[in-house]
Specification:
ten-stranded mixed sheet; globular; alpha/beta
């Protein structure tokens, strides 16, 4: 199976989108702020890029440190109602002060959400978090029990995630989606998995593929080959056309002829453009998926707002990526070297979605 060609009409659309995106980069208005509040986790997933564990080497960031930055360095410069704060980890539910954190950011006028594996989400805890202002939640749900539990390395994980999604669906006006990291073992059962999610009443679904970083770097059993990846794109395209569930491929990379057909928009990497993160040790970077050494400052020695305004050059001017396999690429102007999370510490591209689709 060959990839879908990038036709003339789509090229024109991409060029117009590029002009709009240049304006977004120039303005770099902060719209999403991740707070990596912990690196502790109640699972030890095979594909974790953060190497999270129960006894994390880094201590949780004190809530007062994050709020200090929010009050002194963020709120004076933004409209809080236009900035989403996402609590991330590790596993955020291991923090017992999550409700307090939620109440504090809500009191300051921000919306907030979280990403969870669902292991610690009871009906009571969820209602407590909603009362503290929780507006959105994403739950990892990676396939049927044998597949999910193998990836998450826990015999309880599938049932806990399934129950968590059920609790979430009980709450009106709570935005949510289910996230599936597709592995080769799930590929033959993708349609069956989609139908299962629909039967469970799930309406919003997001798909990732696993790239070679963190624990997944040397585990070939987690990586799709080119034929499987093309099959995945066709599956997403077909499912979106059917319209029985709202499905998007994640903002992982440029997808050539599949652009705007497997997600709601053309590809863009918003890390460092409209998305920033404060890591558990105070480091300031783009989204938390960027695990390479692209730290731009640290809240314990730098002004967050000065860093955001003036130190994100590697994220906003991507000309430096025109090397290696990107040097003579005919679609670089649309891809701009791929997602920042796909670059290693030396700036080398670890994975190219477009090449997988050729």
């Amino acid at each position: 199976m060959k990839g879908k060609r990038l036709g003339l009409r789509k090229r024109i659309g991409l060029k117009l989108f590029n002009e709009l995106y240049d304006g977004v980069v120039e303005r770099h208005e902060l719209r999403t702020l991740f707070w990596e509040c912990t690196l502790r986790c109640n699972l030890r997933c095979r594909h974790c890029g953060s190497d999270c564990r129960t006894d994390a080497a880094e201590s949780d960031m004190p809530l007062e440190d994050f709020l200090h930055v929010l009050d002194r360095e963020v709120t004076p410069h933004v409209d809080p109602s236009r900035v989403l704060i996402i609590f991330s980890g590790g596993e955020v539910l291991v923090r017992h002060d999550l409700e307090e954190a939620g109440r504090e950011v809500t009191r300051r006028g921000y919306m907030w959400g979280m990403v969870t594996n669902g292991m610690g989400l009871t009906r009571e805890r969820l209602r407590s978090l909603v009362a503290a202002g929780l507006r959105s939640v994403s739950v990892s749900f990676d396939g049927f029990s044998d597949i999910h539990n193998h990836i998450r390395q826990s015999p309880l994980s599938f049932e806990r995630a399934r129950a968590a999604v059920g609790y979430i669906r009980e709450i009106e006006d709570l935005t949510y989606d289910v996230i599936t990291c597709v592995t080769p073992s799930l590929m033959p059962r993708l349609e069956e998995w989609r139908d299962y999610l629909i039967a469970e009443g799930i309406t919003h679904w997001r798909i990732f593929s696993i790239f070679p970083a963190g624990r997944a770097k040397k585990d070939e059993s987690l990586h799709l080959n080119a034929e499987q990846f093309r099959t995945l794109m066709e599956f997403i395209r077909r499912t979106r056309r059917e319209g029985r569930i709202k499905l998007n491929y994640a903002c992982e990379g440029f997808l050539g002829g599949y652009e705007a057909e497997v997600r709601d928009h053309f590809y863009m990497c918003n890390a460092g453009v409209s998305v920033a993160s404060i890591r558990v040790n105070g480091d300031i970077s783009g989204c938390t998926s960027v695990r390479g050494n692209y730290t731009q400052g640290n809240i314990y020695r730098d002004s967050f707002w000065d860093v955001w305004q003036n130190r994100f050059e590697p994220f906003r001017n991507r000309e430096w990526t025109r090397e290696g396999e990107c040097k003579d690429c005919r679609v670089w102007e649309f891809c701009r070297g791929g997602g920042m999370h796909l670059r290693d510490d030396e700036g080398q591209l670890m994975y190219c979605h477009y090449n997988m689709l050729k």
